[in-house]
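Minutes, methods subgroup
Present: GH (chair), OT, SY

1. OT presented the first of two proteins processed in the latest run. Sequence and structure tokens recorded below as shown on screen.
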Amino acid sequence: MQAEARQDRRSGLKRYGWIIVVAGIAIATGAYILVHHNTTTKGLSVHTTTVKNGTITQQVFSTGSVASSSTAAVYPVAGISGRPSIHVSLGQHVSKGQTLVTYPDTTLKDKVDTAQSVLNAQSAILSNAKKLRDNADKAGASHTSSAYIQLEQAVQGDEIQYQNALSSLKQAKDNVQQATLKSPISGTVIEVSSSDTGSAGGNGSSGALVKVLNLKRLEVDASLSQANAALISKGEQVKITSTAFPGKSWSGKVKIVSPVATVNSGGSANVNVKVSVPSKFPVHPGFNVNLTINAKTVSGLTIPYSALVENGNGSQVWVDKSGKAKLVNIKLGVTGNKAAQVTDGLSAGEKVIVNPPSGLVTGQDVSAK
């Protein structure tokens, strides 16, 4: 009897064990179905943004070099002999009208004296020729006679010689004035010649004796492609940065957009642009800078770049259509730094998916975070 009772208890425990196992499986299955159902119902979690009206500023990016809008140079004077004396040094500040270079006075003054003597002599010759002709007139000489014609020709020839002597005297006097070369602007001396004929790289066969630059009138010179130049105009805002000053930026404006393109050695046509800089601009002339030019501002529907899909089929976006993903073709207008204008394909209030996940397909359930 006791053995049978123990056997019955073991059988009962087995039955209860199987019941517990089956119940556990049922609970786990139900939980899986519930979670799967909720996930399927909720859809793929995505980030969205609402299409709305806004403004877009198109930007043009370029590089340029800092230069001065006010520079001047003095060069060796042709026809003046003697070693020029340079009276300024590199880095020196000079005022407008200040003497930069002088030539020896003695040679130039001697040439003026010589030219004056020649002019005086030629004046006397001309005066005598005119007197002879006038006397012939008073004596009633025929103007067609060979003697009178010779007198008239002598006057004309002497007149030419007199004018030549007068020009020589003027040139000699001009050379005296040119022997003192003065600065036409106020500024800083950036180049001083080490020779009598000027430093290499100046105008003509010889360079400048002295170059002066106004450091208070700086600007940026840039060269833009035809397409970019067509987008900008005078007065537009420019952000200026320099690798020499990390983390710094300055505001400028477009001063000049050249009306004429310049063809470079590669055959491309570029347009020269000048940009103003603020006072106390710390970047030195000759340094390169980066330019961000605000070219054009428009109003309209806007979306962030992170919503755009570029896959060879033009511009597209994924739209959340009542919890279903839909790939939509759009047309873009002006593009800015972080957003783009949409001219066709979307309406205000629609929700576009930002940074759409790979593998997303049309009709897939999505849920905005």
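2. SY then presented the second protein from the same run.
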Amino acid sequence: MADLIISIIIVSTLGIIAFFILFNYVLQKSFHIDHVESNQTPKDFGFDYEDRLIETENDKKIQIWDLNPQKMAPVIIGVHGWANTSEKLLPVAKGLEDDFRIILLNTRNHGKSDDEKYSTLITYSEDLLSAIAYAKERTEHTQPIILLGHSMGGAASIFTASKDDQVKAVVSISTFASLNDIMLKEFHNRNVPGWLIQTLLSYVEFRLGGRLTDISPVTTINKINIPVLILHGANDPVVDMECSERIEKAVQSGKIKRIVLPNHDHSSLLKDENLSKHIKKFLSSAIV
């Protein structure tokens, strides 16, 4: 009898260990990003810029491009999407440089920034807060700050705006509405068995220390009371245009404007010169 009990304990322990190994393997595959390098720099777009490394969480350093460092004007801090770098935002920045001080951020695992085990909306937000602190110091706290993000960067911008009252507006481009939906799609794309998905989502929430719903744009949009511009491509196959509608409809108070750009997908709208025109027009009335 004693041998049977010992065998059950051993098998159960091994099962628990195997279960957690499986969990961490799936999470590693889903949230780990092999370091993404930039193929272009601001110099390719004619910027006389400063390339800096600044401190962020966990004693890591992140790369920022201070595109027009001598300009004293409202500051736009731009952050890229998942597995991209802020080189994607350079065409947009070019259309905004005359009116704004522009700082582009490469989060951990991107550009010259340090590596991190996982990239999540939380790590994006931590890196954004570090960039905000840099911008405030460099402008002596005299300029309003606008957060501009693409895809995951847009979600992080909405989430982060509630953490600093010097952020006066948000521009969110091609952003998903629900983190749960994005993760479900990711798990399905990686052929994770259906019976395992909900348990994985619960485990992710345990690791994050909160519910995914609480940090999703459809929720966090109501934690800020500043102007928000939502931009989306009509033909986006990565994040459906319906997500921008859900974010807009979720707003209970505050000023939000939604613009859909026809004939564009998830990233092609970043190269459309009309994008920066929409942003400038919106910010001309949002920042007073």
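Chair's summary of item 2: The radius of gyration is 21 Å.
Next meeting: continue with the remaining queue.
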